[in-house]
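The protein record minuted underneath.
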Amino acid sequence: MAGDFYELLGVSRQATADDVKRAYRRRARELHPDANPDDPDAAERFKELSRAYQVLSDPDQRSRYDRFGEAGVGGGPGGPGGADDLFGGGLGDIFDAFFGGNGPFGGGGGGSRRGGPSGPPRGQDIEVVCDLTFEQAVFGDRVPVTLKLPQRCEVCDGSGAGEGTKPVTCADCNGAGQVRRVRQSVLGQMVTTSPCPRCGGLGEVIASPCSSCRGEGRITADTTYQVDVPAGVDTGSTLRLTGRGAAGPRGGRAGDLYVHLRVAAHERYRREDDDLVTDVPISIAQAALGTRIDLPTLDGDEELSVPAGTQPGHEFVLRGRGVPRLQGRGRGDLRAVIVVEVPTKLNTAEADLLRELARLRGEEVGESGQGLFSRIKSAFS
């Protein structure tokens, strides 16, 4: 042994059991071979440290060590109870205490099985797309969503066992749900843990499967959920329904249902964040002289006063007539954008009136009949 056990751990001889444990945890992280990959002596020092902790953490061994030294606890590393024997079991116990059995040496010596099964696995999360009208997205609604997914078997109540029977303890893992295997390494015996292949990690097997679900504990069927859609959602919004996904096998809890929303376009309105935008077509005369029009909104018709001289692209804003805000109070605005429509066909009287207007305003306009085809015809005459 390279030194006194108390010195190796860095504690006094009056140290309590908690002092010893804290000291070992600190020193183990410093001296572990994985933390010192370039040090060829790291494995040996770690063995010595672990041996010291094994002795000082046990009241009987500590008492013998205090009275007789290392000879009182089994001699050196090669003797009974030494470091070689330690790596078959004791060090696994240490890592069990500190790391929940997930340390590099497993949870115990010789491939022993400890702990319990983690229980039936959770069911899968399910995703579905739900189509909404524009109005449903703006004002919210309750919509049905139908999908096919695994549900808990009502015949066996999810156990998977036939009538009058129940699951039995797996003989391969003794109900632990996992098996451990031992292999030798430079650091001693290394223990690996994996789910039991016979019971799939459940710790139980079905001797007489349920005739309805064939031992699965769940069956696949059509299910309809009524989904509450909040006001203000938009395409790309996702609603999470906890516990509405696939039921887990053998009584495992259900996963979640994710409802992805897709909103149809509106014939009149387009959405910009929480605002609604619509184009309002008016004539040249209405833009020049002003007018009053009935503007259809999602809340009903609204009278809009267009003053004389309104220019194309001008926006009239109706406060609070837009989309409800998902993350706050109130609603966005309704923006009405003026679009001045220029007539493409005029009769003679209409053309004469516009030509007279242009004359009064001193504006040059094309002569009557001087369109493109008229000019081409004139060129060949």
About this structure: DSSP finds ten helices and 15 strands in the chain. The domain at 5-86 is CATH 1.10.287.110 (Helix Hairpins). The CA atoms of residues 219 and 267 lie 43 Å apart. Residues 17-31 form the longest helix (15 residues).
